[in-house]
Design goal:
By secondary structure, the protein is α/β, with parallel strands linked by helices. Helices cover about 40% and strands about 20% of the residues. The protein is built from 7 helices and 7 strands. Strands 2-3-4-1-5-7-6 form a 7-stranded mixed β-sheet, sandwiched between helices. Helix 3 packs parallel to helix 4.
Length: about 220
């Protein structure tokens, strides 16, 4: 199903400028539920929570459009495979003529403990290949927001690539499910307020959530 020109015109003439939430992952059933696909999961959970149907296909992405309150929102899951995510996100952002301060990318992060979230106003790619591709197609610009979802580090000498493509253990899955619910609230926070104190407080709460976990159990 293709997006129509009317769809773009409606969004771009809205009183409020749209937000674009991009979730990174790999297409195909065999990747469902893997650590590297948590960006896809977050978009799906958010879409369901706010009643946006992910029933459009364009710009090499599965997409949904709708409103959260009076704010227009575009949700997208690039289907290019993780390392080529920018081939979708670049043209999509250009089509809607969005400034990068209205773009947020949701992705997995091995530098955060499993189930811990972090809202970030901007930053580098942190060796995340999906973010590398997105930044490349944004002409090297890194001035876009991120919702980082912690998946933990590979245990022992495990190959990082194998770790990313594994499904979560039962305990880790419980933590991730809780994180997805908190992620919905984080994305609503993005829509309701600018960067600032509310974002900082969210990140502090996430930090202390991790500290309350007295023992760190490998995901």
């Amino acid at each position: 199903m293709m997006l129509s020109k009317l769809s773009r015109r409606c969004y771009c003439t809205s009183v409020q400028q749209p937000w674009l939430f991009l979730g990174l992952g790999n297409p195909g059933d065999k990747y469902n539920g893997t650590r590297h696909n948590i960006g896809f999961e977050m978009i799906d959970v958010f879409a369901e929570s706010v009643g946006i149907q992910m029933n459009l296909l364009n710009f090499k992405a599965i997409m949904g459009q709708g409103f959260v309150g009076d704010l227009p929102v575009i949700l997208a899951k690039p289907q290019t495979y993780m390392n080529l995510s920018g081939e979708s996100s670049g043209p999509l952002t250009a089509y809607y003529k969005l400034p990068l301060n209205r773009v947020l990318v949701v992705h997995d992060d091995t530098q955060l403990p499993c189930g811990v979230l972090r809202l970030q106003e901007k930053g580098g790619h942190g060796c995340h290949n999906g973010l590398k591709s997105v930044m490349h197609h944004f002409r090297g610009n890194k001035e876009f927001a991120r919702l980082r979802i912690g998946i933990g580090k590979p245990p022992g000498q495990m190959d990082p690539k194998a770790f990313l493509l594994q499904k979560f253990s039962m305990l880790a899955r419980e933590r991730i499910d809780g994180a997805l619910a908190e992620g919905v609230e984080a994305l609503k926070l993005v829509l309701s307020k600018d960067f600032g104190e509310s974002w900082r407080l969210f990140n502090v709460e996430q930090k202390y959530k991790h500290l309350r976990q007295h023992t760190i159990i490998a995901p």
